[in-house]
Structure formats: structure tokens, C-alpha cells
Amino acid sequence: MDDAQSERAEAEAEDPISRAIAVVARSAPEIRAGLTGRRTKTDDENASGETQLAADVWADELLESRLTDIEGVGQFASEEREEIVDAGDGDLSVAIDPLDGSSNLQSNNSMGTILGVYEGELPAKGRKLVASAYVLYGPITTMVVARDGSVTEYVVEGDGEEDAERRAVREDLALPDDPTVYGFGGRVPNWTDRFADYAGDVEEDLKLRYGGAMIGDVNQVVTYGGVFAYPELDSRPEGKLRLQFEGNPIAYIVESAGGASSNGEESLLDAEADEIHQRTPVYVGNADLIERLEAEF
Ligand code: FDP
């Protein structure tokens, strides 16, 4: 164990926020290994009406049992389950998207796991986040963690919970000043006119890269600079992504890395949280690109 790893082990022993982050890191190799053979659809739908894959259900159950075990965690919520789980006494709540972008599993493209740690009960505003993190199951497994205003990228290695190791590869991560990529979800004919106008402007300066899993698409923005959006649609003004599980945690990471977030009007972190599965348009990236969007809207 190097110095950074033993410092982390000490923090994890006492601090529930560090423990929640550690649980997700340690579960990542196991989740990755367990994807093989769980690519089939189930007969069930999640709380947002999407058909669940065996992998969604399995990753949800694995993380639920481990995260609700942490002393100090009072509530557990998941994109894959209707109700918030009461985890006992504790002032912290964890919100999880166990497998973000799981429709990519069939075609073997990238996916992620998202964690938001909120102070107080859910649903909660993004300003209540005290940490957030995502795992990216790409060619290698990486994890990005935002806490106390700084963002670190780790490589996660190992085969299972016992020997999983997290090694920092980029500290104080910041979005590059000179952005190069954009990725926008939703079908173009369904975009609103104002978003289509914005997209037209962005296309002049940036290169399209869209993979269809928010975590992969956001991670390239964090790496190269640019903008990711799952916008408002004519048919669905509230967009597709969920505020508690996706919008807020990602906004917290991007803003901690010097970027900006918006729901079209204000920072996602300032958006009112009324319902655990509420959807929101999501726009995150370099601050000037998000300012431009808000100015054009
Ligand atoms: P998925 O349905 O595969 O779980 O969370 C929903 C999400 O993926 C995001 O990861 C992704 O950005 C978006 O939906 C992709 O939606 P489209 O297929 O409409 O592009």
C-alpha cells in the first residue's frame, strides 16, 4: 500500500462519505466482471418505465446491500427502484445509477456507475451534495471523484471486492480551456428550435463525439473540454435524464472541475428537487459554452 492508499484507508474507517466512495470503487471490478452473461432483458421496468436488463437489477442489489450497511447513511435511492430505502439512522443519503447507459451493453460499448452523496433526505437539491463520483467501464476501468471542490481521476484495478485498488492518475482535474468535443442526445427531429440553433453554432467549432452513455460522453468532455447535453425535446420538455441520479452528480463533478452546468435556466445544482425520479434537461461543459446556451435560450 502506498502513502495515498493508506491515508485513504484511515479516512474510510471513520468517514461515511469516504466509505460510500470506497464501496463503489471496490464494487467496480466485480460489476464489470458480472456484466458478461447479464445482457438479457428482464420482464420488468424501472421507475422511469425503461425495460431493465439483468445487469441493471444485479448491480442495483449489490450496491444497495453494501451502501445501506454504512453507518451514517440514512437513505438509499436508486434509478432502478421506485421507492427510497430507509437505511437507518444517518444524516447522509446516497443516490445511485447502478449502470448508466446500460442500453450500450448489448452492443458492448461503454457504461458507468454514478454515485451522489447528499446531506439530508432525498429528494434534495444538488447544492446538498457533499461528494459525487462515477465509474467508467471503458477499455479500462476509471473512477472520477469530486469532493471539497477538487476532482481526482483514478484507475481501478483488481478482480473483486477484496483486491480492488484505486490509483490516482489525475489530481485537481480541470476542464481544458480550449474545448474540442460535443455530444448531444435525443433525436434531432425532436429537438426544440432553440436547442437546434445552439447545436448549429456549436458544430461550427467542435467535433461530434456521442457514445450514448452519459458517463462516457461526459468523461470525454472532462478530458478534452466541450459540451454534453441531453436537451429538452419537443415531445418531452423535461428531457430524459434524472436530476437526483444523473444531473446533480454530474453537475457537481463538472462544476468542481471548473466547468458549468445548466437545465437551460440555471445551474442544475440550484434546480428544485420535487420528486426522486424527476427528469431534467442536462447541459454540462466549459463555462463559456454553457453561458452561450443560457444566453440563446
Ligand atoms: P440508457 O438509457 O442506456 O441508460 O440514463 C439514460 C441514458 O442511457 C444515458 O446514459 C444516455 O446519455 C442516454 O440515456 C441515451 O439516450 P438515447 O438512447 O436517447 O441517446
CATH class descriptor name of the largest domain: Alpha Beta
Strand content: 25-35%
Put simply, the count of helices is 7
Rg estimate, integer Å: 18 Å
Instruction: Report the principal-axis shape.
Output: globular
Reading the helices and strands in chain order gives: HHEEHEEEEEEEEEHEHEHEEH
According to DSSP, the number of beta strands is 15
Can you tell me about this structure?
The chain is of the alpha+beta class. It has two domains: 3-170, 2-Layer Sandwich (Fructose-1,6-Bisphosphatase, Chain A, domain 1), CATH 3.30.540.10; 181-296, D-Maltodextrin-Binding Protein, domain 2. The chain is built from seven helices and 15 strands. It has an eight-stranded mixed β-sheet, sandwiched between helices. Strands 12-11-13-15-14 form a five-stranded mixed β-sheet, with helices on both faces. It has a two-stranded antiparallel ribbon with strand order 1-2. The protein is globular and about 50 Å long. The chain starts with a helix and ends with a helix. The model has no long low-confidence stretch (mean pLDDT 94).
